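Technical annex, item 7. During the second reporting period the consortium partners agreed on a shared format for inverse folding records so that results from different sites could be compared directly. Each record opens with the tokenized structure and is followed by the designed sequence. A conforming record, contributed by the partner at site C, is shown below for reference.
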């Protein structure tokens, strides 16, 4: 037993990673995971059509609207949200099982979902990624050329709304240089692992 067991956190960390579409959350997360931090990424569900480079079960669990609604009606999602016309949801069982085994996990979800996770699991660690500027965000969104012009415009409007949520998060990381952003996330995880339990 660890010497500080009585005032250490119980279970694994539940990390919520948010930030506007195009900010580079995926790249930061991939780079962070490659650093070998021992954190597992949660594969969430979506009704959005699969993009060319995406693999079912790895990037998302791709569901039909009917499948999604069936799972939602059985309380299968810890949170679910609509984003630019598509549904997204975090699998409740996976999160609770992994955390209870002491596994640190990370959810890459948008702000409504992040807020809902915080409400249900106040101990979660909320990290928000911001772009260096709005111009840079637009450039990155256009650069990835996976979305139509209409989708890009929708995502830019949504990005403005999402940025106003940053102040409600525990940490904000500016994604200017990818490796620095990933390193900042790694440092946050290390700090949180060494945190004492509040109120003990
Ligand atoms: P994209 O369509 O670009 O893959 O994702 C759109 C947004 O939905 C991103 O901000 C992504 O992080 C978020 N997202 C992915 N999975 C979930 C989820 O399970 N719940 C919520 N609330 N957002 C999600």
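Designed sequence (site C submission):
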């Amino acid at each position: 037993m660890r010497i500080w067991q009585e005032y250490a956190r119980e279970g694994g960390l539940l990390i919520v990673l948010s930030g506007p579409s195009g900010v580079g959350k995926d790249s930061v997360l991939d780079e962070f995971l490659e650093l070998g931090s021992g954190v597992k990424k949660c594969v969430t569900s979506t009704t959005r059509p699969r993009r060319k480079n995406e693999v079912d079960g790895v990037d998302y669990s791709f569901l039909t609207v009917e499948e999604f609604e069936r799972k939602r009606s059985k309380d299968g999602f810890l949170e679910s949200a609509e984003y630019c016309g598509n549904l997204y949801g975090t699998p409740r069982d996976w999160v609770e099982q992994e955390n209870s085994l002491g596994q640190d996990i990370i959810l890459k979800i948008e702000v409504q979902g992040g807020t809902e996770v915080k409400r249900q699991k106040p101990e979660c660690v909320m990290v928000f990624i911001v772009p260096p500027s709005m111009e840079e965000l637009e450039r990155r969104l256009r650069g990835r050329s996976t979305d139509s012009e209409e989708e890009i415009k929708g995502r830019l409007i949504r990005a403005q709304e999402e940025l106003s949520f940053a102040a409600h998060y525990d940490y904000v990381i500016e994604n200017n240089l990818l490796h620095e952003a990933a390193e900042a996330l790694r440092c946050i995880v290390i700090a949180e692992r060494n945190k004492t339990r509040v109120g003990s």
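The CA atoms of residues 102 and 161 lie 34 Å apart. The first strand starts at residue 14 and ends at 18. All partners now use this format for quarterly exchanges.
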